[in-house]
Amino acid sequence: MTLTGTAPAGPRQRFDAMISGEERIEPRDWMPDDYRATLIRQIAQHAHSEIIGMQPEGNWITRAPSLKRKAVLIAKVQDEAGHGLYLYSAAETLGVDRAELLDLLHEGRQRYSSIFNYPTPTWADVGAIGWLVDGAAITNQVPLCRCSYGPYARAMVRICKEESFHQRQGFEILHVLARGTPRQRAMAQDAVDRWYWPSLMMFGPPDSESAHSGKSMAWRIKRYSNDDLRQRFVDIIAEQVRALGLTLPDPDLAWNAERGHYDFGAVDWAEFTAVLKGDGPCNRQRIEHRRAAHADGAWVREAARAHAAKQADRAAAREAAR
Ligand code: FAQ
């Protein structure tokens, strides 16, 4: 008992008090096993999404229509690699190794976002990914800057700043195409038609089917439900699409003054389930490419390890000679 007569808080109570007091949990703090496991699952899936997400746009680097577009696209794809690195580092603070996480991805035992299993047949797809995919990512990720786990929340701050540049570059690509020749305009509309519904699926299953939301929201990892964020995103893009002079492929999209939100049509959850099971248009291609890139990079990891060992030996020799 303390002087005030209250029992000293055990680690569990301290953790609960930190969560309800909006304090950040840091790597050395005690945390429940399932809080740690949930974070590892979500952060790893997020990191995998960033690096697999390099593929659909990377496909256009050699074919971007001008030197300026090529330079911007290289920078954007490189940013996604950087996001993967911040996120694998955040996951490592929870006691896992990034090599282990990559093995789980390559063996199909951890997921990456469904959105990256769709193809990019035209240049306008690069615009649609920037506007819709990065736009959905920002809508989901801004609240994650207030996630209860410190290293994840801090990684998200920088990621969100970069994603907002990505979204604007996508919007600008579509804006230029929409005001171009009739073929360019049709290409922009076609890309928006193909990416709209998959981008709504990025927010995850409906709340009634979301296995992890309850706990994640109680732990303040997630701040809003999947459906709330999906609605927020539709409300934003339903307005932005007008500035583009394009349309969204949803006949049920309509402003609902009573709710103060846009109503929208039913998402095809059967398609989402099929993509999660590995049957999307590009699942096999994406994972095979990732495995091959990993194998091709083995010599780089080996060289980095040898360099680190040499540096450590030298530092030890210097220490011994003191
Ligand atoms: N795809 O219970 P919930 C980006 C799985 S980054 C695949 O609702 P949760 C940047 C879920 O894992 C995009 N799987 O799950 C960029 C769970 O599976 P499990 C990635 C999905 O975690 C732009 C099951 O369904 N962003 O785009 C998906 O509470 C351009 C049940 O779902 C993040 O990862 C999905 N869409 O909520 C890069 C953000 N949705 O483990 C390159 C962080 C759900 O039971 C180019 N993550 N699942 O087998 C999150 O906010 C959450 O994890 C959600 C899912 C909201 C994605």
TrEMBL record:
InterPro entries: Aromatic_CoA_ox/epox (IPR052703), Ferritin-like (IPR012347), Ferritin-like_SF (IPR009078), PaaA (IPR011881), PaaA_PaaC (IPR007814). Coiled coil: none annotated. Transmembrane segments: none annotated. GO terms for molecular function: phenylacetyl-CoA 1,2-epoxidase activity. It comes from the Bacteria. One of its GO terms (biological process) is phenylacetate catabolic process. It holds the Pfam family PaaA_PaaC. One of its GO terms (cellular component) is cytosol. This is Ring-1,2-phenylacetyl-CoA epoxidase subunit PaaA. It comes from Murinocardiopsis flavida. The lineage of its organism: Bacteria, Bacillati, Actinomycetota, Actinomycetes, Streptosporangiales.
